[in-house]
Amino acid sequence: MSEAVKQEIRNLLKEHNAVLLAHNYMRDEVQEIADITGDSLGLSIEAAKTSADVIVFCGVHFMAESAAILSPQKKVLLPRPDAGCPMADMVTAEELEALKARYPGVPVVTYVNSSANVKACSDICCTSANAIKVVRSLKEERLIFVPDRNLGRWVAQFVPEKEFIFWEGFCPTHERMTVEAVRQKKAEHPDALFICHPESAPEVTALADHACSTSGMYDYCRTSPATKFIIGTEAGILYKLRVENPGKEFILASPALFCPNMKLTSLEDVLISLQTLSPVISVPEDIRIRAKSALDRMLAVPRD
Ligand code: 13P
Ligand code: SF4
User: Fold this and answer.
1) Would you say the CB of residue 60 lies under 6 angstroms from ligand 2?
2) How far apart are CA 125 and CA 113, in angstroms?
3) Nearest ligand atom owner, CA of 258
4) Domain(s) of CATH 3.40.50.10800: residues in the chain
5) 2-84+262-282 belongs to which CATH class?
6) N or C: less crowded end of the chain, CB within 10 Å?
């Protein structure tokens, strides 16, 4: 059954000149069939440069919106339009405008986990993979950072010369990973390194041997001489970590690390999306132009 579904997906991808992108948190079987897997930054870059006519985005709503912002001539499909991000919903454009009015002239750095409307009110976007470089690229000493308070506070440690105005948004999935759960895993596996995502609560990140984006975790675990890792991010990351590192052991830091939104998309959803060429994600042109300038400014920040 599943093999037939996979074959039909491959046929339809070819027929429609479509590319299948999947975030690193997607279900294993979705990652397995994807043309490209990656983190938010990597997928934005791929969405911008692909020559496909159709992008099937297996991720959450803000990611498909980013693809639609960067590639307006392409059809962007989100197989599960109900896959949202609670953190992205924690700030609206109206709320951000009200904050900006209190701090005139202070630039806004917006994590890509945000709506197109919020990006449109921002000066520059960032992802967890480039946030430190993005903040350093600003000439101003003060900045507004939305919506993730945890990522913002983590970045601030590396850029002490800047003053941050934080928004109190957070990722409910990462915040469910408690200090107690991590301490317990560390006690059970004293020989393991603890790697976590900077969306985690500061007291959890403080316990980490290394904090980084999801793509950073692949690089770190592949190149590290260590062979055992406690992983503090959404469980979907384990799939590729295990495929790429058969000799190494990966332990999830907490059973709470499941993002319900990231787990919605099934192979059947991908198939129906390709059969019906829907649901299409689009962004009104005036918003798109403004949001694109914040994303373009981020993409122009040298990566290394
Ligand atoms: P990255 O893949 O950019 O690290 O993003 C994490 C995340 O929570 C996406 O929703
Ligand atoms: Fe949003 Fe967190 Fe889920 Fe990522 S893992 S989509 S930030 S709720």
Assistant:
1) yes
2) 9
3) 2
4) 2-84+262-282, 88-171+287-299, 177-252
5) alpha beta
6) C
